[in-house]
Design goal:
It is built from no helices and eight strands. It is mainly beta and 80 residues long. The chain is globular, with a radius of gyration of 14 Å.
């Protein structure tokens, strides 16, 4: 599970996140008609399955585009 939280103010133009079911949809680094595009909105949280590739889209406006990513795994990452 991945959670992305947009923490940049709403003055940002563009931005947001694009989700797809394969890396082919995101190969040029730009969203296509085959992606699910979620626009930037301050304090918006987007939860999705971490098996899907995603792209943080280019933005204009504020010099900072901050997105907080939280990753949750259902498997142990390192065995002792």
């Amino acid at each position: 599970m991945v959670c992305c939280v947009f923490i940049t103010p709403d003055e940002v133009v563009g931005g947001g996140i694009s989700l797809c079911d394969s890396f082919e949809c995101l190969k040029d680094g730009h969203p296509t008609e085959h992606t699910i595009n979620i626009p930037h909105k301050f304090n918006r949280a987007v939860f999705f399955d971490s098996s899907y590739p995603y792209l943080i889209n280019p933005h204009q406006g504020s010099s900072i585009n901050a997105t907080l990513h939280l990753n949750f795994w259902d498997k142990e990452l390192i065995k002792s």
